[in-house]
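Known limitations

Files may contain more than one protein. Parsers should not assume a single record per file. Below, a two-record file is shown to illustrate correct handling: read the sequence, read the token line, then continue until end of file.
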Amino acid sequence: MKITVSHQDGMKFEAKTEKSSFIIGCPDINPIEYFLSGIITCSATDMILIPKNQGKTVHDLTIDGDVVRSESHPKKFDSLHLNYSFNSDADDTTASRFVMASLETYCSTINTIRDSVSISYSIIHNGKTILENKKMISGNSNIIDMGEIESCPS
């Protein structure tokens, strides 16, 4: 994977990937917000594709991310809490496995930061809280095999 970022004007930068390009316009959206958005979107794609692989569907998916950063530079993420809210035709146990498979196995962005960031999550499935403030098992990826899935090319 290769990305090139070039300065455009003022605080605008263009990011070019092998497939497309987009403008990063600081301070409207700063790089750390793009970074967090990418982390969450990685898991969101899993949340659509993992159920599909199991013959299930997820709809009305929302993932809220809340980060606490250290106060001193470089102001790294200390903790990340993800709130998953979605409806599906799966039972609650299976729905929670979709989230855990994304977090523990498939989402490469979350698994890139997991050794240095305390990650927790909550799940609201079909309008009911089924897990709250559950800590992700950090470090040394625990594999939860849900089979092969399609993915956004990375």
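...continuing to the second record:
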Amino acid sequence: MTEAPPKSHGRLSIQASARPRDLIEDNPRLLGAWEARVITLFPEAFPGTLGLSLTGKALQDGLWRLGTIDLRQFGEGRHRNVDDTPSGGGPGMVLRADVMGRAIAAAMEGVPEDRARWPLVFLSPRGRPFDQATARRFAACDGLTLIAGRFEGLDQRVIDHFGIEEISLGDFVMTGGEIAAEAVLDATVRLRPGVLGNAASAEEESFSDGLLEHPQYTRPAIWQGREIPPVLTSGDHGAVARWRRDQAEALTRARRPDLWEAARKDEE
């Protein structure tokens, strides 16, 4: 009688590594390509939507690189614990300083020490709001390391020790920082040379000049009785430019008075 194969028969053996894991390993590695590294408890969440459309094509073409650092492998004890109860009491759990410290050391290995060239960012609801100017700043760097938070947050000593920059997507709380990290990377990568293809697309978008974008139209010329504004089909490029500017200003005044006031101050 043939013995049954062991339960492990045919299964892959996986060994933890402190090195960032490249998510598309067969892509070309272009010299000087912009690189993102994400410290996360859920590396399987990446590349997610970043692997689609223009950012996905750019990733496959080697215009940028993406790697994940699995926080769990730096955990304590047999169960690889990464969190503990808050000092002073209270609900929830806090990411441990020693665990995150080891993960950051691994994530920042081989990158420039100058944070202006390679920022280290923690996605946190208490952080400074992420905006288009920040995306442009990140896109001009050599790379970016993001920490996708979980639970009640991260031990403050880690933030202070590493001089971590805190960034928020807005005044709301999410379960974790993975979706926020993808949003930051999407907004940043699309500004890198060659990703959009048409550089003018990025120049005319919302927030590029401090204003919301003007309304957009395309075919058919009439839909449900609604026409495309005649100025857009007039062939008068000067009139089109003026119309778009007027529309952008009107929308910004109505929907984002904060942006409108900031734009006016910049012009003064």
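Parsers that stop after the first record will miss the second one. For reference, the second record is described as follows. The two ends are 90 Å apart (CA to CA).
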